[in-house]
Structure formats: C-alpha cells, structure tokens
Design brief:
6-stranded antiparallel sheet, globular, 10-stranded mixed sheet
Length: 326
C-alpha cells in the first residue's frame, strides 16, 4: 500500500474513533442565584427547603445528612440527551471545579466536585421503562423528548441528570432602586436576550435584546394588573430564546414544563442564557467518542428580593435571613 494511502486510512480511523458523527448530544439546565442589596449574588442555603426530587435519585452522602451546604448558585436540573441511529457506548464525565454535585441519576461516581457516569449505553428504539413514584414531580416532564434511552450502572433513564451547589462568578447583577431595576453585564462576554419577569399583584414581562460586557440598562417596573395568564408572554419569549440556541422543540417544551411553576411563582427575576464559553468553563463536559453535534443551553435565573417580599418572609419567619432559607 502506498504511504499516502496508508496515512489517509490511519487519519480516517483516528477521526472516527474521536468523533462519532451519528451521535448528537443536547443539554439544558438552569442556575439560580439571589441578588443582594448591591445587585450581586449572595451566599445562601439552597438545600434548606424540602427536596422536590423522587426518592430514587441519588444524593451525595454528605448532603443527605447535612442540609446546610451553602453557595451563591444552585445548579438545577441539567439534563443530557443523547440521539443516535444505532446503539453505542459513550464515556461521560462532567466537572464542577467551583462546586459540588449533590444529586444525580442514573448511578454514577461523584468526586472532586464533578461526576463520572463511566460507560453509558445509548439504546435507541429500546423499550422505555423508567422508575416512577406516586404523586407529581417536575422531574418527569424532562422525559418528553425523542432522545434515546440510556443505561448507566444498571439503571435506565431518558437522560443523564445532575444537580449541585457552587460559588462562582455569574455575568449578571440586578439592583432594585424603587420602581427601577438596574441590570448590568458583569462578565467578559456579551449576553443575548434577557427576560425580566415579575408576578405579584402586578405583571411585568420585559425583554432586553442583549448586554455588552460592563453595559448597564435601567428598566421601569411596570404596574399592569393581571388580566390573563401571566406565563404566556414569558414562555413565548423563552421558547424563542431556547430554540435559537439550538434546542429541539420537544426539548424546549420539556424545559418550560419542568420549570413553569418555579419561574411563574410570585417574585421578580431575570432569566438569561449563559454564553456557551461560560458553560464549558463552569461545567467542563467530557464525551468519548465526541458527538457530531453538541448543544449546551443553561438558563441563568437571578432572583431579586423586593422589599415587599423581604418583609413578608421576615413576618412569616423572623429568623429566615439567619438560616439562609430565603
């Protein structure tokens, strides 16, 4: 065989081993933080509330017996979907250098802040038999996609799920000044469209078309009495943002159904998409073989504690601010 042909065949073999063009991987999730008086995320106890996950989800031993793990960010419900035209195995690992993985499913090894599922079987077309429990949970809507079932550690699911708590800089601050909200891009990368959503006696749904690094925009809190379903305008805006970022329509629907109650509860919040470069730095993802397509879409959620909300919380529990449960 001629040397040039031999080299070409070797290069093709190595490329196929490193990159499987038939594999597509999509991920969505959200980060939740709470803005302090200066607009920047504050330290809080995101595990102080009762768990909203099914009991079959794995919990880190230190978290199970210690609900006082604190941080500035609650990393909520990232899920990894796999699409393939044939069965294959993929080694999957997610790092979290500035945090700790607290919950996950299926079975995996959690250590050094990250999580390692080892060899995950991707099983397109196989019967879907996943664990369930009586009662409702916002865990289950994430299964409503065309992704292939996966198996890891002898456990099956429609996706790989994980959660965690971390302390790392986020690219957004929001400062409440009476009837005005000052929003600033505190990161080094441009931010795309942002959604400001307030639901109480009044409704506010406003969008910003993007913020450059260091840029500040000021919005006036509108006072429009609720007349129709307040979630409609917000979900339409979010749907457009998520589709433009590369998620499939069923993935977008699954994410919105998962988070609609939480994002639509009373309060004032800013929702935005983390830049892909930021996502890869915060949660470095290792896939072997590499997929032909990889989409990662994480929504940042910054909760702004209004004076009215703070007063109501403290009247209900005067020690809430000490316990970190707000």
């Amino acid at each position: 065989m001629f040397p040039a042909v031999r080299i070409a065949l070797l290069a093709t073999t190595l490329a196929c081993a490193a990159d499987d063009g038939r594999l597509v991987v999509h991920e969505w999730g959200t980060f939740t933080s709470v803005a302090g008086q200066d607009g920047t995320p504050v330290d809080w106890n995101p595990l102080g509330a009762r768990s909203d996950l099914p009991s079959f989800v794995h919990v880190h031993p230190e978290v199970r017996f210690k609900s006082s793990l604190r941080g500035t960010v609650r990393m909520e419900t990232p899920v990894l979907y796999f699409y393939s035209d044939r069965a294959l195995e993929v080694d999957v690992k997610v790092g979290f250098p500035q945090g700790r993985i607290t919950e996950w499913y299926p079975k995996a090894q959690s250590g050094n802040g990250g999580i390692d599922w080892g060899s995950v079987e991707i099983l397109p077309g196989s019967p879907e038999s996943f664990p369930t429990e009586a009662g409702e949970s916002h865990y289950y809507p994430a299964r409503k996609t065309d992704a292939a079932p996966v198996r890891a550690g002898g456990q099956s699911e429609k996706f790989l799920f994980y959660r965690g708590v971390g302390t790392f800089p986020l690219p957004l601050s929001a400062h409440l000044q009476g009837d005005r909200i000052a929003i600033q891009n505190t990161g080094k990368l441009p931010l795309g469209k942002l959604l400001v959503y307030e639901r109480d006696r009044f409704l506010q749904v406003q969008t910003l078309e993007g913020l450059e690094p260091g840029e500040v925009r000021t919005l006036v809190r509108s006072h429009v009495h609720l007349r129709e379903a307040p979630w409609r305008a917000a979900s339409e805006a979010l749907s457009g943002m998520l589709l433009a970022a590369g998620l499939y329509p069923k993935e977008v629907s699954a994410m919105l159904e998962t988070w609609k109650e939480s994002w639509n509860e009373e309060g004032l919040r800013v929702l935005y998409l983390l830049p892909r470069e930021s996502t890869d730095a915060i949660l470095p993802l290792t896939l072997d073989p590499r997929p032909g397509e990889l989409v990662r879409v994480l929504v940042g959620r910054l909760e702004i504690l209004t004076p009215e909300m703070e007063k109501a919380v403290l009247e209900e529990d005067p020690y809430a601010h000490v316990l970190g449960e707000t």
